[in-house]
Amino acid sequence: MRSGWIPPRALAKGLLLIVCFTLLVAAIRGCRLATDPAPAPADDDDLTLTVYLHDQDKTVKMSLDEYLYGVLGGEMPASFPLEALKAQAVAARTYTVRRMASQGGNPCGRDGADICTDSSCCQSYRSPEALAENWGSQAKQYADKLRQAVADTHGLIAVYDGEPIEALYHSAAGGHTEDAQNVFSHALPYLVGVESPGEQDAAHYQETVSFSPKELARTLNKAFPKANLSASKLDRQLEIQARYDSGQVQTLRLGDTTISGKAFRKALDLRSANFTLDISQDQVSITTCGYGHGVGMSQYGARAMALEGADFQQILTHYYTGIQLMPCTATS
């Protein structure tokens, strides 16, 4: 008998045990894999941009869709209808592409980035972690909704004459949006005033702020030294002279000078330039209608249109006159 020889029957049993063990491991592993969530597919054609995180004072790279998720959460309530969120996604993507160096845009330039997260300069942005914390028990529902809005509009931008538009937007127009030239001193054919109904339940749609005559005179004289306002004469020194079709104040007399409604709004940090004055001996009340500069897409107007059954294309073509929606490519 040779040393190390194994009987055929014992060998067969051993091989059978190995095969059974292998199948058992594969079955267990297969069940585990079947219950694991599948990773989200990557978009190979998604653009990459540099973003300056102003609250962290650093610049990072991220995909355009990843950035837009944070912008959607920062700029529009996730409770809004999906079609309104899609319209916001396209507007935000268009705004961003116009600032991407890789797309021939004009970057924000803060710390060398394409765009920043400072809403006073570019667009609001919130990290996924911050959004989830803010949403609480609705985090998954809202996260899925925002990701769907970005995914369903993937790559789409608004163009005019083949170029990405300046896709401005604001919270609420006060019933009618404003021509760009009346706010930003230059006309754009796709940023002209249009009706914007259904905004009445918008946050801060109508708001009243009050000042004592002495406080208001002091504040306005500091901002406009030529006004020479007197606290005891404000009822004769403050007068709205003209309004635009949107309702925003075009000019008002301020004592010995005339200023724009836009300048008055800025000096007093008002919600909008669509305002009325109520002047008494003891108090000056200023009531605003709408929230924001009023140019481009009204977010609450988009919400109202979506609730009435409009899709995102109809919303965008209503607020941006004469535009087309096209996929963004490296040559856009």
Physical arrangement of strands within the biggest beta sheet: 2-1-3
Rounded Rg: 29 Å
Q: pLDDT average, as an integer?
A: 89
- Name the shape in a single word: elongated
How would you classify the helix and strand content by structural class? alpha+beta
If helices are DSSP runs of H or I spanning 4 or more residues, what is the number of helices?
Answer: 11
**End-to-end span in angstroms?**
82 Å
Helix content: 25-40%
One letter per element, helices H and strands E, the order comes to HEEHHEHHEEEHEHHEEEHEEEHHE
Structure description:
The protein has 332 residues and is of the alpha+beta class. Helices cover 37% and strands 19% of the residues. The protein has a three-stranded mixed β-sheet with strand order 2-1-3. Strands 5-4-14 form a three-stranded antiparallel β-sheet. Helix 2 (64-75) packs across helix 5 (139-152) and helix 3 packs across helix 5 (139-152). The chain is elongated and about 65 Å long.
